[in-house]
Predict the 3D structure of the following.
Amino acid sequence: MEVITSKSNPLCVHLRKLASSRSYREETGEFLCDSPKLLREAVQWGADIRALLYTEGTEPPPELEGRVPRLARVSEAVMRSVSPMETPQGAVFSCASPDYSPPERLEPDSRGRLRFLVLDGVQDPGNVGTVLRTADAFGATVILLPGCADLNNPKTLRAGMGIHFRSSIYRCTLEELTALLREAGLPLYGAALRADTADVRAVNLSCCAMAVGSEGRGLSAAVLAACDQTVRIPMDPRCESLNAASAASVLLWEAAREDLLKI
């Protein structure tokens, strides 16, 4: 078993750069995950794990033997130098990035659902990861438009809790999105206020795409122009708005409510 004792080991340098640099992640086609929980998810769903560092007391899953090109035990000090977490949990690993390219056409999922959540300029990685996890719980596929946080940011991955390994996620331009929706016959509803805005409870969200905008600016003018209708989430008049992850959670719950009542 390989043992790494130096913080300047080339593998440690590589993993630190994966944690800190979006351009390096895109150049190498890899991303960094931390925590045994994410490692278990990666193993369960057959992720392409490239390297794993672990500390004493955090033994790698036996399924990884012979599957990972680099598998090394490190000291607590080396782990702290590599992990992006303030308190490392004993395992960091790199994976090959999934392909986030959009499909040629939008297809129903295994339960026949054709439901999508579109993020427009949502820049907080924690919010993006939370939306991914919520969409997975409520049976929707997430599509990211340009200007969103990096899907492979360690904070996005941590908040997503393994969603990257088990579900499809897409990135595309607005032009690609509108073409896909038009071909599938799906309406696009935007969470925003304008003349045609309807109470979200009065709109059929069972088969559609729902768009949520950035934390500060909301939906862009271009996305609003592409929306078939806008919807509002009723709330106490004292409150001005919800953040992106909270708004997405309400929309996803409303869209899935009929399905959930059957469970």
